[in-house]
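Batch manifest, entry 17 of 40.
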Amino acid sequence: MALDKKFIDQFVNVTSYAALASSYLVGKKNKIAADKAAVDSMRSELNKINFKGKIVIGEGELDEAPMLYIGENVGYGNDPEFDIAVDPLEGTNFAANNLPGALSVIAITEKNNLFHAPETYMEKISSRVKESGVIDLDFTVKKNIYNLSDYLNKNPENLTACILDRPRHQKTINDLKKLKVKIKYITDGDVSGALLVTNEKYNVDIFLGIGGGPEGVLAATALDTFNCTFQGRFLFKTKEDKIRAKKMGITELTKKYELNEIVSGDSIFCATGITSGDLVSGIKIEGNKFVSETLVTHKSSNYKKKLKLTKNISYKD
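Output type: structure tokens
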């Protein structure tokens, strides 16, 4: 098996040290510097691993951020060959303003098994539902909520929907309010928002709305191991967006993608907390060591755990 479990610890190191690097800039009101610190650390750690990796989803052009660019090769070996999606600092505003929920995130599959998502917006929906036809991007909010209510055996007023607090979602929010659904608003960080459906303890039943396309692919990788439903549809606002998408091999610009079309085969997903949030705890520094918490999934072994690690701040391998 190419994506062996031995790689889990190595990729947890990647996100943990990226999170540590970014943590020194938490609350410094400089999201670009915090992002660059995470990017530089993530690149350095990836290049310590004996594999041949290719970045297929990199840092976002929308933020004019320092990039681990699409097409960049990482690792020092010739095999196995992996495709990699990265978001070294998910929630740049959270880190800059010392708010909960900043993460360092990576997803890995075997070559050609991860969707090459352009840096554009994506309409998405996720829930802890295994059957098809319960929730769907093509359904109305009302139909999704009623279907989910029946599936989970809960009244609509006992359901909680997670959504980015954006003006573009006002109609969806109004529809949810009419149905008396509880709403959990998030201001950024829709990777973690989508993942809150994975466990009842987070008290989120459905995630929906429009967010980043690359973030959708990252979330889908973890949701795959949790046997959740995820659908995504790209939204291309400009001609340039459409040209970029076609260059990446996307020919059906209005297609609704199912989870198994976004990620296939084996995968590893790691999300390490930078600042403490709903999903994982943030970095804690204790003398010359730091403590990190990482949500990790590995599809083929059905591995899904939160790993709390204590490591030396100065890391050499």
